[in-house]
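Checklist before submission:
- one chain only
- standard amino acids only
- sequence pasted in full

Submission:
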Amino acid sequence: MKKKTLLGTVQTLPKTNIYINVNHLEEGNYKLSIVYNSKIIKSTHFTKEK
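Returned file contents:
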């Protein structure tokens, strides 16, 4: 039997993006804060609706 070699490439995700999946959160208002060196550098509010 002759050996077969299969090759492929996988697209890598950008190292500078963070994805947050909110599918399993309950409905309501949420506050998201991004912290760096114990300081809030960005804060935002969002509402999870049905």
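Reviewer check: The longest strand covers residues 39-48.
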